[in-house]
Task: structure prediction
Amino acid sequence: MKALVCKEFGDPDILVMEEIEEPKIVPGKVKIAVHSVGLNFPDTLIIAGKYQVKPPFPFSPGMESSGIVTEIGEGVTNVAVGDRVMASHSIGGFAEYVLAPENNTYKIPDNMPFDQAAGFPVTYGTTYHALVDRGNIQPGEVLLVHGAAGGVGLNAVELGKALGATVIGTVGSDEKIDIVKQYGASHVINYSTENIKDRVKELTDGKGADVIYDPVGGDAFDQSIRCINWNGRLLVIGFASGRIAELKTNLVLLKGCSVVGVFWGEFGRRNPAKNRANFMAMLDMVEAGTLKPHVSRHFPLEKGADAMKALLSRKTTGKIIITVKD
Result:
């Protein structure tokens, strides 16, 4: 089968197209003929050797995909051969076939195209777990979303709105404001021209945000801890800015707030039944038309390196999708 392979750590240009052996089915796994792959920021980290997991060489990146089930391993009961599915699987998506754990494989609704499904598991799984399980977000609360036009950010805006929150998004340019408002934000802050802390305080009559969704870190985190409401929850999702912030714990005391880590992958491993229930709830929302994943760009498999560069440019919105099979 064709695959885009990483043989050494580096930037996206180190990826090479090769013919490799198809993965062999094993108990508890599902073999998928890949149609589309969702691109995520951790994919760029894993090929650079900067992710918490370092697979042995050679490997193909790609943490999530969609396609058709071609084989099922012993003990698999949730899906059958021929099903249209999406799955998360850590690595291996940049290829014509991939193996995925049964617990992380889901049948997709008839109204969900493969490209939307491919970009769903990682970002929506992370975001639902963050807002519901870790943030305990309530209707009427104010949700501040950093990186609101990006993959996880736009999901947080959309899900936050669907869960009854008033959403404030932050973006780095005026060109991204419209898409964030389209997905449910009541207000959008351009942090290049406005101060996040001051603007959030202004929009909330001085109270601050109840829940803050932060996949950016760095300056965004520094601003967040200064514009969080009493009993607020600051959700640490990731560090797309490249800087891991240092927290002055006196601010946590004075604000009466919580700083909460969100590690969806580990949550899914420790609580597979609850993770699956989260996905069933979200897929019901997709089927009802409440959630409509946004795909901004498509790249063919052989242009996977270009897709990663586009993601790293931080000029895209929503999800970038790698098309393996039309």
About this structure: The first helix runs from residue 41 to 48. Residues 136-265 form a domain with the Rossmann fold fold (CATH 3.40.50.720). The chain has a mean pLDDT of 96. DSSP finds eleven helices and 15 strands in the chain.
